[in-house]
Design a protein that fits this description.
With 402 residues, the protein is mainly β.
């Protein structure tokens, strides 16, 4: 449990407003700065945004400050929500955290006291800019239904939005990753609706992770604001990494660094580019008891067409590559490559592999002239760290402690 630097920076966009002394009421307070009967001036409270300001950006920081005293209580409330905040160590400043709701009127109430115990109460208001449209998260992975909540050490965090995002900085800095073991990582935008996170290196085994998408009120584009906050929790399981070579024709499975199984395999036969198994760092994307496979780019009645059901399959790319049971090629497994691109293993080994694989387990294939593309399935680890960072808006960070 180490300390960490936050990936999201709340309070950015602090209003560059001149603080104006607000009206005071209650406790018989006189004008700010005047002497009271005890010989002390009343506490003078100032608030930004200024009283009755309209069209305030939702990510603007509410700042309450006092001179000649300390703040005892500050609340910022509007509609069905309130803004939390942090009081400075000396009690003279309060800053809000998070984002406000678009199109909402907020009331700021501050209570301050001077050295003589004289109370000053201040109330101001402001309203936020209205939203023309809202955006939400469409898919948020890992998830219980699609991946399970215990995943492999290569598993990325994947978010897809339902609207195009142009203010990537605003959105990305509000995507907070917390983990029980510190992890150095970064978000990566694949397009204007898709952003993924991966560590620089594989996740440490047995790490608990929480992802908070604090997007309520966050600006995604002109007139577009986040509809609500969402979060997920998942666990990184044991470390299991499978390596295979199209030259040696064997898969080797290592768990926590120790070899636990070796399996003869037969990879893509090549000749035609699509029939090569791709080299690179694949991830287990799904586990399927049966899969119907059809010849790529070849239709019924054409030479080379096939459609067949195969069993105990683990998907490793979007271009149709699986590790699966292939009883018809057992004689070639361990000796030669005869498949159309998949990795063939025996029925017994296929049953073992599907039972012992987590979604997100790395499967590293070498020896083929065809490289796995970073956008082919979950080929995230094909990009070097510098390449990954080129598509991040706020660059790398260490996860928050959880």
């Amino acid at each position: 449990m180490g300390q960490a630097i936050r990936g999201s920076i709340q309070g950015a966009g602090l209003l560059a407003l001149v603080l104006v002394t607000s009206c005071t009421a209650g406790g018989g307070a006189g004008a700010p700065g005047t002497a009271s009967s005890q010989g002390h001036a009343d506490a003078a409270v100032t608030v930004a945004p200024a009283d009755r300001t309209g069209k305030v950006p939702t990510d603007a920081t509410v700042l309450v400050a006092v001179e000649g005293g300390v703040l005892k209580k500050v609340t910022v409330s509007g509609g069905n929500s309130s803004l939390p905040g942090v009081l400075s160590a000396d009690g003279t400043q309060w800053r809000s955290r998070g984002t406000a709701t678009p199109g909402t009127s907020y009331q700021v109430r501050a209570t301050a006291v001077n050295p003589a115990g004289k109370i000053t109460e201040t109330t101001t208001s402001f309203s936020t800019v209205k939203a023309a449209k809202t955006f939400s998260i469409e898919t948020f992975l890992p998830s219980k239904d699609m991946t399970g909540l215990t995943v492999g050490v290569g598993m990325p965090i994947m978010i897809t939005f339902d609207q195009p995002i142009t203010d990537r900085v605003s959105v990305e800095r509000n995507l907070v990753v917390q983990s029980s073991k510190p992890v150095f990582g970064a978000w990566h935008w694949f397009d204007d609706k898709t952003v993924h996170f991966r560590p620089r290196q594989f996740w440490p085994a047995h790490t608990n992770v929480r992802v908070e998408a604090r997007l309520a009120g966050v600006r995604g584009a002109a007139g577009l604001y986040g509809k609500r906050n969402q979060s997920i929790n998942f666990k990184v399981g044991r470390s299991q990494i499978t390596t295979g070579s199209t030259n040696s024709h064997y898969l080797v499975v290592k768990r926590e660094g120790r070899k636990i199984r070796e399996m003869p395999m037969s990879a893509g036969q090549g000749g035609v580019w699509k029939y090569y198994t791709t080299s690179g760092v694949h991830l287990a994307m799904s586990r399927e008891s049966s899969t119907v496979m059809t010849s790529p780019g070849i239709g019924p009645g054409q030479a080379g067409y096939y459609q067949m059901t195969v069993y105990n399959t683990v998907r490793i790319s979007n271009s149709g590559e699986y590790i699966h049971s292939a009883p018809w090629s057992v004689g070639s497994q361990g000796y030669s490559n005869v498949s159309h691109g998949c990795v063939n293993i025996s029925p017994e080994n296929a049953r073992w592999f599907i039972d012992n694989t987590l979604i997100g387990d790395p499967i590293i294939i070498t020896g083929s002239p065809r490289e796995l593309e970073p956008t082919n399935g979950w080929g995230h680890w094909q990009e070097k760290w510098k390449q990954w960072l080129q598509w991040s808006s706020v660059k790398h960070f260490t996860t928050e402690a959880r």
